[in-house]
Structure formats: C-alpha cells, structure tokens
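Possible regression after last week's pipeline update?

I re-ran a chain I had predicted before the update to compare outputs. Posting the input and the new output here so someone can diff against the archived version. Not blocking, just want to make sure nothing changed silently.
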Amino acid sequence: MQNTRKTRLLRTLAVTAMIGAGSVATTGLAVVPNVAAAETFTNSVDLVKKVMPAVVTIEIKKPANDQEMAQMGMPPGFPFDFFGNRFGMPMPGDPNMPNQQAQRPEITGLGTGFVIEKDGHIVTNAHVVDGAESVKVTFQDGTTADAKVIGVDKATDIALIKVDTNKDLATVGFGDSDQAQVGEPVVAIGNPFGLGTSVSSGIVSAKGRDLKSGPFDNYIQTDAAINKGNSGGPLFDANGEVIGMNTAILSPTGGSVGIGFSVPSNTIKSVIADLGKGGEVKRGFLGVSIQPVSEDIAAALGLDKPEGVLVADVSSDTPAKTAGLKRGDIIVAVDGKPMKQPRDLTRAIGSDEPGTEVQLSLLRANKPLTLSVTLGERPTESPS
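New output (post-update):
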C-alpha cells in the first residue's frame, strides 16, 4: 500500500513563547502608498542593499487561543482545571470564581512587514497582528518602536500598522502585480523561524492561485523559500518593487517545499488605501448566490459552451433584486470585463465601493441583456 501524507496549508506566523503583553490603540489616517521609480537591478546583492532598510521584524503579544494552547500541550481550561483536579480547590485567578476574569497564557508571535511611507506606515499580514495586545517593530539598525494597528482586513489577510517617528524612514514602493510574468525572478525577505532577516530567491511559479481560504484569493505562487515568520514580508521583482506580500505555504512538513503564496501588490494597494482612511474596507454587494456554468448546465440552457457565472438565487431587498436580476441569469461580464468563474464575479463586485453603478452583461434564456446595478455594502461573510 502506498503511504500518503496530507498536505497542509500553513500560515507563516512564527509563534515562539509565553510572555507579558501591553496594548494597541487604533486610529484612522489617510495613506497614499509610496510608489518607487523603477530601477532594474542586475544582481540580487544590489537589490537587497537597496530595499533591506525598509523591511522590519514584527513582534506581537496576545492571549493564546484554544488551538495555540493545544499546540503547546495545554488543554482548554489549563491551568485552572488541572489545579482544581489536583488540589481540590480553585486556583487564584480562575475565571469560574466570582469576580474573576478569564486569564490565558500569553504568547509571542513573530512576523515581517515593510515600510511604505516615511512617516511610519507599515504593511503586514492581518494574521500577524490579529488579536495582538501589543505590537513592536524592529528595524534593520536594531532600533525598536511600538506600533498601532490602523486597520485589518481579514478577507485579504492585509493589515496596516504605524509607528511614531521623528525621522524619515526608508521605504519601498509597489510594482504592478498584473504585469508580473510567470518565470520572472523574485526575491523574498522575511524573518523565518525568528532567526532574523533572511533573503531567499526564486521565480514567479504561477499567478491567480485560489487556496479556498477566502472569497478574494488571487495569490502569486513562488518557489522562493518562505517559512513561518516570513508572513507579511515583501516579494520583490527585479526592479526592487514589491509585487506581493508573502502570506502562506503549502507543505506536508511545516517547512518550505518551494510552494509559497503572496498577496498581489495591486490588491494590497487598494486595501491599504481604504484601511488608511477609516481602518476598514467597505466592499460592493450584489445580493446573489452564484455557481459555475458546467457543461451539463450549458447544454440544458442551450449554450454553445460553458461560460459566465450562473445566478442560483437572488436575495430579497438587495441591489440585484432591485435591478431585476433573476434566478437562471448568466452573468458574462461586469463593466465589459469577462466573468469566467464565480470568484471573478466576487472579486469584481467586491473591488468596487458601495454606491458604485456597474453594468452587468447577462444571458437570459440565451439572449443578451444588460442591467445597471447600484451596489450595496457587502455584509460580513456574504457570498457576492
């Protein structure tokens, strides 16, 4: 019998130890992402020298959740249940005692970030700072600063944080991830396993990867080594521009096997612009349930080939209902952009702001139709 190993998708936040914690404030600041002038580097040495000062290590402290406690060999309720079972009396601080609040062991997590504005705005992954009670940033010269979380967007795993500074910080700029080519060289910088800033190189292995981790998955795949602790680190092209943010790996072992994934820079630019304005991202909402157009559905509807996105249901009191969409409609384009599969439609609608008017090109009973829809605001965990 052939022995098989289950492949696991691993976020790359390195969790290290239990220690004390502080607090993080939030604010809402407008951010205009820095875009550096393109400069093609002939070797990685010059590229790294140029961009390294803008790459930072991020250390967070937060209470451990149930999963993290289990990984440390601590069952839920530890140490209070253990103490009570052994000594027959409540442990001081037990949340089950009157006038006590729940207390959990605190852990330290390590990740990476990169400075995009000289005033201290830094981009990292949402899962790096999610739930953090304190965030500390360490720069390449060894200096440290406390950071505030400006905003977090879990849907795309992007976060914007800021440190207060009395000097201009080194920054990096964004490239155009849509122009990235499969096979082109890339350099990843991060803090794997808490060892310190490390550099790895590779190529763009693929684009548009869907990891089924969220509705807006559109990852750049790379074979540059990415490990736990690389989360939030930049992926650079040959011009020294950020074309992605290293976020996840696919691995049967927990270490890099050459399959890493980065959030595209064009997604990052859009999201952090919203986070900088109000600390959250507001997305357009249509109000339909959708599914792919299979070959069987195409044949049943009399289509020459499977194409577009099938409207399986239209929710009441939604922009879709108001605009006249019907169950069985096939959406083939939004504002002229072809919709080949459901995630294309989800991303297209979600990338527009509430109140935006879009043109939907449909097939209804195999006849073309165009509808104008004014988008609503996407609720949390909504399909489209």
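Follow-up from reviewer: compared with the archived run. Residues 284-377 form a domain with the Pdz3 Domain fold (CATH 2.30.42.10). Marking as no regression found.
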